[in-house]
Design brief:
The protein is of the alpha+beta class. It folds into two domains: 3-65, no CATH class; 77-142, Multidrug-efflux Transporter Regulator, Chain: A, Domain 2 (Orthogonal Bundle), CATH 1.10.1660. It starts with a strand and ends with a helix. Strands 5-7-6 form a three-stranded antiparallel sheet. A hairpin with a 2-residue loop joins β6 and β7 (111-115). The chain is 52% helix and 16% strand. α1 (15-28) crosses α2 and α3 (80-87) crosses α4 (91-99). The relative contact order is 0.08.
């Protein structure tokens, strides 16, 4: 099980590591991973917080599936372009969200900036609405 660390934090996953990830995901089956513990070189055990467990489980799932996984750190204050990318909308659409009061900007001179937590909350809200709409469509199809 090896991976190759390239420049700028890029990690290439080889077939053996992907296979190990697949085995772990299959062993867990449909059960949610709720606890992970790290063992240090001295034998000390460190329990991971639930949010970190979720992150590791998600990464493990993506590695098992193959393809590409990209992770980035995001600053607490976003430009409108970065916020639009984060939401998956165009910048003009983001500006409409600001005008409609769905996002509250921070003004830096004449420029709008947005809090990451506000943008993330809107993203989660929009994703929940999308899931509910799909569920309603599926219900209509069953009728």
């Amino acid at each position: 099980m090896t991976s190759t660390l390239l420049t700028r934090g890029t990690v290439l996953v080889d077939e053996a590591l992907q296979e190990s990830a697949t085995e772990a995901v299959e062993a867990a089956a449909d059960e949610k991973i709720v606890r992970l513990t790290l063992t240090t070189s001295t034998g000390r055990e460190v329990s991971l917080a639930p949010a970190v467990v979720d992150l590791v489980a998600h990464v493990l799932q993506r590695v098992a599936q193959g393809g590409e996984l990209t992770m980035h750190t995001v600053p607490e204050i976003l430009t409108t372009s970065a916020a639009a990318d984060f939401l998956g909308v165009s910048r003009p659409t983001l500006m409409k969200l600001i005008r409609n009061g769905e996002l509250e900007p921070i003004m830096v001179g004449t420029h709008h900036r947005l809090r990451l937590e506000d943008v993330a909350a809107l993203r989660a809200e929009r994703e929940k609405a999308r899931r509910m709409a799909v569920a309603e469509l599926l219900e209509l199809e069953d009728d």
